[in-house]
Structure formats: C-alpha cells, structure tokens
Write a structure and sequence with these properties.
Radius of gyration: 24 Å
Strand content: 15-25%
Order of helices and strands: HEEHHEEHEE
Distance between the termini: 36 Å
Shape: globular
Largest sheet: 4 strands, antiparallel
Low-confidence stretches: 166-175
Strand order of the largest sheet: 1-2-3-4
Length: 180
Amino acid sequence: MPRNKPGVFWGVAGSVLLLDAFTKVLAVDRLVPAYLPRPVWGDGVRLTLVYNPGAAFGLHFGAQSRWIFVALTIVALGVLGRLYIDTPLMARLRVIALALVTGGAVGNLLDRLKSGRGVVDFIDVGVGAWRWPTFNVADMAVTSGAFLLAWVLWQADDVPAPAAAAPSAVTDEVSGGVVG
C-alpha cells in the first residue's frame, strides 16, 4: 500500500518542535525570575515562566513523575507512529493532526529529559485569580492536534463503508428486461 509522503508529517512536526524549543529558550532567558507574571494584554494574557514536573492540569505522580511521563510519552509516540503508518494516502488532515501531536509530545519529552525541574511553561491566560494552567507551544500543538485527530477520525466513522460486492441486476438479454 502506498504511504503518505513524509514531507508533510516531518515538516509540521519539525516546525512545532523548533518553534517550541525557540520559545522555551526565550522564556528561560528573558522571563527571569520564574513565577513572576508579566502582562502582555492586560491581566488576560501574561508571560510567566514556570516549570511543570507533572503533566497537564498539574497531574503529578510524586518523585517518579518525570520517568513515568517519559515512559508514557514514548508509548504514545509509538501509538502515533502506528496511526501514521495506517493512515490512508490522501488523509492529509489526519497526517497534520498526527504531526502536531507528535511535535508537541517530543518537545515536552525533551524538556523532561533535559531537566528534573520539569517542562518549561510560560503562556498564562485568564481573568484575575481564574487562570488556565500555564502552557507552552508544545501543549498548544498537542491539544489542537488531538482535537483535529478526533474530528478527522469521527468524520471517517461517518463515511459509509463501500458496499460489498452485492449481486446486481442482470439484464435479460432475451426479453430486454431486468432479472434479479
């Protein structure tokens, strides 16, 4: 079976990874000291350098969280790889979704491998004390890619499967009528 050209997948995943790494380097370099909010758009959007040793929404498994999340990410990357291999040739949106999730997952994986402090997060949105958990470019890619992938897979489930080789009407050559 022909496979999708890897250029789209690696182009999107690589772009996410590079943008994520670049913005994290800037955040670590320019947002010192950590945990000090800097307004960008009033109180609604701020830049605040934080290190997240857990996962989304502060999910944490204690001292071994770092290695648990490394292992879970590697497993997830294996699943994403399998999904890519099984992706039909013309399913470009599915390839893009998988690339977004993969690029973001690798970005956060690299943070976990580099430092025990955790993943570098710096985008802080909310109103007053009501704040969304601080996130980064990799998190945006994983989230948007996951929603896109869910939508694409949901749409694929709504497409009726091609009919099996059903018997068709046969023309009766003698009478000119249809038999069947």
